[in-house]
Amino acid sequence: MLHLSIPRDVTARGVRTRILESGSGPPVLLIHGFLGNHCTFDDISPELAKSFHLVAIDLPGSGGSERPPPSRFVYSAESFAEVATDVIAALQVGRCHVIAHESGCAVAIALASEHPEFVDHMVLISPSFLPSTPPPLVRWMRTPLAGGFLFKQLLGRSLFHSLYLKHMYAPGHTVPMERINSFYDPLMEPAARESAFATLKAQLDTRPTIARLTRIKAPTLVLAGRAVHRVSPELAPRLVRQLRNARLMYTDSGHCPHEESPDAFVAATLSFLPHQ
């Protein structure tokens, strides 16, 4: 039985990939979102580990994983999903539940669509792959030349902190500085910035993800925060309508209910995911 998070590396699609395991019970794969890593699940992992075998993955280019150049690895939801299949195979956990946050939800959708034999239930936290109007800075970052310079050269710690607080959490929510630093510190490496920018560009075309929605058979819980101000409130219900077997739950939080309201998130997850 694993009680503490144990980090180790596995090779997935030729990339050294960092995973952290904890707990025992039915396996649950945790997939973070853009500019995140496994630390985003720190507040919910101790409680969930009492009922599940958690496998938190740092996607290539993030956290403690390798940062291959875009010429060697395509930073797309499809490629990340294939990495996830290699992790599942390497750990021999078989069929598992998936909890994904933000752009990680597109990875979960690709995994459940292309490899349904691996996915039992899904919890999608603040999915961000339906068309919406991004904040101005993100729009600038997505421009071919200016965006690359802005993202790779000008995104300093203070700007990152202010943007993360503004766009990821509900107004007034207090976030430990160490948490945001855990997301920014890996970005200090030039290779990490290059990987992150490649990931950002790959997110522009959401059509493949949307096309997969009707093929998803796994029961799905979509969690959306009421205080999210950068995503249209109509997007979450629209997503649930397109999935075959999904239900929607709102939380009194921003874009990160698992960080802002961990107790409520754990309660909702335990009531949805089958476990002993």
* H/E topology pattern: EEEHEHEHEHHHHHHEHEHH
User: What class would the helix/strand composition place it in?
Assistant: alpha/beta
What is the number of beta strands?
A: 8
**Major beta sheet, specifics?**
8 strands, mixed
Poorly predicted tracts of residues: none
- Taking all Cα atoms into account, the compactness measure Rg is 17 Å
Number of helices: 12
CATH structural fold name: Rossmann fold
What is the straight-line distance between the termini? 15 Å
Overall helicity: 25-40%
Instruction: Please state the average pLDDT score.
Output: 88
Percentage of residues in DSSP E strands: 15-25%
The dominant shape is: globular
Name the strands of the widest sheet in spatial order: 1-2-4-3-5-6-7-8
- Looking at the overall shape, the CATH architecture is 3-Layer(aba) Sandwich
Name of the top-level CATH class = Alpha Beta
Q: Please, how many domains?
A: 1
**CATH homologous superfamily name?**
Alpha/Beta hydrolase fold, catalytic domain
Can you describe this structure?
The protein has helices spanning 45-48, 77-91, 104-114, 136-141, 146-154, 157-168, 177-184, 190-202, 207-212, 235-242, 257-260, 262-272, and strands spanning 2-12, 15-23, 27-31, 53-57, 96-101, 119-125, 220-225, 246-251. The protein has 276 residues and is of the alpha/beta class. It has one domain: Rossmann fold. An 8-stranded mixed sheet has the order 1-2-4-3-5-6-7-8, sandwiched between helices. The protein is globular, with a radius of gyration of 17 Å.
